[in-house]
Amino acid sequence: MMHARLEADDARPLIEVDDLLVQFDGQAILRDIGLSIPRGETLALIGESGCGKTVLLKSLIGLVNPTHGNVIFDGQDIHRLNDRQLTQQRIRFGFVFQNAALFDSMTIGQNVAFPLKQHTNKPLSEIRDIVFRHLKEVGLPESVVWKKPAELSGGMRKRVGLARALVLKPDVVLYDEPTTGLDPIMSDVINELILRTRSKYPVTSIVVTHDMRTAQKVADRMIMMYPAARLKEAEPQILYDGRPEEVEDCPDRRVTQFVRGEAGERIEEMGAFTGD
Amino acid sequence: MIAAIQLALFNWLADWGAVAIDCIVAIGELTLFAWRTITWTFGRLPRRETLLPSFYQVGVMSLPVVALTGTFIGMVLAVQSYYQFRELGLETRLGAVINMSLVRELGPVLAATMLAGRVGSAMAAELGTMRVTEQIDALTSMGANPIHYLVVPRVLAMLMLIPALTVMADFMGFVGGYFYSVIIIGIDKHFYLYNSQVFVGSWDIFCGLFKSVFFGGVIALVSCHQGFYCTAGAEGVGKAATAAFVYSFVMILIIDLVLNIGLERVYMTLWPDAMVSIGGG
User: Theoretical Cys-Cys bridge with B120: which of A273, B116, B184, B281, CB 3.0 to 4.6 Å?
Assistant: First the structure.
């Protein structure tokens, strides 16, 4: 009986987004978003800047409150939990922010140790060992623990952000544009780290990106979103939901243009604004 | 013509209505923010490693500027009052005037103003930068409450250390006033000190320190609120830092007036005879 219930839990999607609407100052950023993310999947959320990818990512852990709709995580509606319950669910997520969002006032060691100090009663020696181990996993030497975030390069900061996100062994890792602003080699290092994280830990990953190389390399499934303001009333905001290798065969021109990086009719639209 | 006037009148009313709504919303937001801060303050004390840096920033780092302000205010009061009191032959009463003004009014208000400028703006800029660079989101995503982690230590530091800083401003004002009056001008030291002692009572010192606690609380809350809800970009952070000082200063003036009225009433209730004797000369 118990076994059957556990199997049923495993079969149920880990994250379900239902009819999500997010408005800022009366303007819809997300509308009618419905998603179902099974355990262990790596999902790439692609789309042009301003289409609401990051807002969707933040809605998943209650950093953005929806105007309407639900986010169900492991059977619980994230936006209906009290503070204590929400905290318990949030620590099951690891969030890698776009610019790493490391705490300026702390050293790298203190940054990575922060979740452990906040939520565990581990002795300092054990915390130090965990911090060193996670920094090593993302390819950083022990000497960085005493440095401040401002002393590191962008790529190193992102890796520290990844180490910090993984330190509590989360069930879900959310990556917000993990390769933006990095050189091609460092971008590939981050891609490899995402893949290595997935093979080492049983995590579900959601990667927000507009880097097609990242999306193609790390994802099992790809979703393309389109800015709500540019859509007609009945059009869905999710233009593509499928396998990454099939995205170029999508009949919607907006998807293929984005994937190939073609400006298309945008040039004419810009001309209308500039009067050219 | 009448339609145009009507339209202008409606627009004028609509503008004032929008201003009134913005004010009510801002006061409501600040009240909710203060309530959440108070709830967290009494709910669970922050850890020592988050409290100590705030105490160091507010207390130790502000000490020189508060002491300097107090010293110069004491000396300026002596310079300003001396010629007028000399005309009346009351130079020896300078000690009473300088020290009474300092402990009741200038010490607490100027110490608070300096703190609003030095600490309040820094708090708003720091929290604003954290908001803009998603550090507050990062804190929340890791299951830490940003009010508990960022705001409560700053509010506690201000509440607990502003009376000490006010005492320092009062003391250095006394030193400055004494230096200029006794050493520079050459007023009799005995009468200067005697008049200071007779006219400045423990009630006056209490009133100054009592007011300072409210000033400290309002500076911390207003500044943290400005930083916490800072708008995007460098411009947003700059605006938050400026607004933190301006709103804190306005609030200091309003609270000073209200508390002075209240404290006078309390004094009259507690010691009605003292007021009669002063009034009757």
Answer: B116
Helix (H) or strand (E) holding A77: strand A76-77
- pTM for this structure? 0.84
CB-based contacts of B48, cutoff 8 Å, min separation 6: none
**Among the partner residues B53, B134, B143, nearest to A119 by beta-carbon distance:** B143
Shortest distance between the Cα of A16 and any Cα of chain B, in A, equals 19
Q: In this structure, what is the dihedral angle of CA atoms A138, A141, A143, A144, given to the nearest 10 degrees?
A: -30
* Digit-coded pLDDT (tens) for B188-199: 888 888 888 888
CA dihedral over B225, B230, B234, B235, signed as positive or negative? negative
**CB-closest option in B133, B140, B141 to A99:** B133
Taking the C-alpha atoms of residue A176 and residue A189, their distance in angstroms, rounded to an integer, is 16
For the record, the structure tokens of A235 come out as 């059009």
User: What average pLDDT does range A252-271 have in this prediction?
Assistant: 77
As a whole number of angstroms, the distance between CA B187 and CA B78 comes to 11
What CA–CA distance (Å, rounded) separates B94 from B78? 7
* DSSP secondary structure letter of residue A22: E
Here the ipTM equals 0.86
Determine which of A2-6, B86-90, B132-136, B222-226 has the lowest per-residue pLDDT on average.
A2-6
Burial of A31 per CB tally in 10 Å (0-12, 13-18, 19+)? buried
* Residue A72: C-alpha distances to residues A56, A86, A194 (Å): 13, 12, 24
Cβ contact, residue pair B135, A58, below 8 Å: no
Q: Hey, is the C-beta of A61 within 8 angstroms of any chain B C-beta?
A: yes
pLDDT at A265 over 80: no
The one-character DSSP state at B271 is -
Bridge partners (DSSP) listed for residue A204: A172
pLDDT tens digit string along A51-96?
Answer: 889 999 999 998 998 998 999 988 888 888 888 888 889 989 999 9
**Of B137, B138, B143, which is closest to A87 when you measure between CB atoms?**
B143
A49 touches chain B (CB under 8 A): no
Q: What percent of chain A has a predicted confidence (pLDDT) above 70?
A: 93
Instruction: Convert B10-26 to b/e letters by CB count within 10 Å (16 or more is b).
Output: eeeeeeeeeeeeeeeee
Mean pLDDT value across residues B198-209: 88
Which amino acid is present at B105? Answer: E
Cα torsion angle, B157, B160, B161, B166, sign: positive
Q: What is the mean pLDDT of residues A178-191?
A: 84
pLDDT classification of B95: cutoffs 50, 70, 90: confident
Q: Chain B within 8 Å of A104 (Cβ-Cβ)?
A: yes
Helix (H, G, I), strand (E, B) or coil at A108: helix
